[in-house]
Design a protein that fits this description.
- Strand 1 and strand 2 form a beta hairpin.
- This protein has two helices and ten strands; from the N terminus they run H-E-E-E-E-E-E-E-H-E-E-E.
- The protein has a domain of 168 residues: Porin (Beta Barrel), CATH 2.40.160.
Length: 255
């Protein structure tokens, strides 16, 4: 048997490749452009709710609004006497008059009253005045429109007042041989008291200054008379004034 000598085979040697890193700059991609789109409106359709039937269960589910508590109102009534405001009245009066011409008179008359408020009264009056202290017969018929202003409280039983009036007067004087018809225009100012008896009746008393001026001239025949029964007579002419004091007491019933 023939033996061969061993043959040695050299093993190959492998070398790992050495990788050298190569630097490369990073590449940035630009962001995509921003596109703004308008908002899309979204409509929500609310379902219509049918009215709740008159069912006790449904009524309990419906919220009820709270009712405000009632507030008591306090009303303060005015202290005015009843049945005295805005009422009509009819009255009568009598009085006396003293004048600067010695023609003193006694008078009787009536009046229509309208109480426009608790403090004011409109009067429309008419009188018949008769001379009492002269040998000649003379009478006057004055017609006046006046206003009374009560200066006290409306609740007073005795109410003081101020008064003013415009007066037109017709006068006639008997001169025996003829008569003298005269027309005067004048006024009155003064004050008085009103006593209220209940709600409908009032008694009044006042004093006034009364003055008037003759508006026309006497007739030729009347002005030519200078004496009557041996007494000198002076007939008043246009512009002649008569004045004096007049005092009245009266009563009225209001409706």
């Amino acid at each position: 048997m023939v033996r061969h000598a061993p043959v040695y085979v050299q093993q190959p040697v492998y070398q790992q490749p050495v990788y050298q890193p190569v630097y490369q700059p990073p590449v940035y991609q630009p962001p995509p452009p921003v596109v703004y789109l308008p908002p899309i409106p979204v409509y929500v359709v609310q379902p219509q709710q049918e009215p709740c039937p008159p069912d006790p269960c449904c009524q309990e589910a419906t919220p009820q609004q709270e009712q405000p508590s009632p507030v008591a109102a306090v009303v303060v009534a005015k202290a005015t006497p009843p049945d005295w405001a805005h009422t009509f009245g009819l009255g009568f009066r009598f009085g006396g008059q003293v004048e600067n011409t010695n023609w003193n008179h006694l008078s009787v008359g009536g009046e229509l009253l309208f109480r426009t408020s608790a403090r004011t009264t409109v009067e429309i009056s008419g009188e018949y005045q008769k001379g009492v202290n002269n040998d000649l017969d003379r009478f006057n018929v004055p017609v006046g429109l006046g206003l009374r202003i009560h200066i006290g409280k409306p609740t007073w039983v005795v109410s003081p007042y101020l008064v003013g009036a415009g007066v037109f007067t017709y006068a006639r004087t008997d001169l025996k041989a003829t008569v003298d018809d005269a027309y005067y225009l004048g006024g009155q100012v003064g004050g008085g008291l009103e006593l209220r008896l209940g709600k409908r009746v009032a008694i009044t008393a006042d004093a006034r200054f009364d003055g008037r001026v003759r508006m026309d001239d006497p007739s030729t025949r009347a002005s030519s008379i200078t004496s009557v029964d041996g007494r000198a007579v002076r007939v008043a002419k246009a512009g002649d004034a008569e004045y004096g004091g007049i005092f009245r007491l009266g009563a009225a019933v209001y409706f």
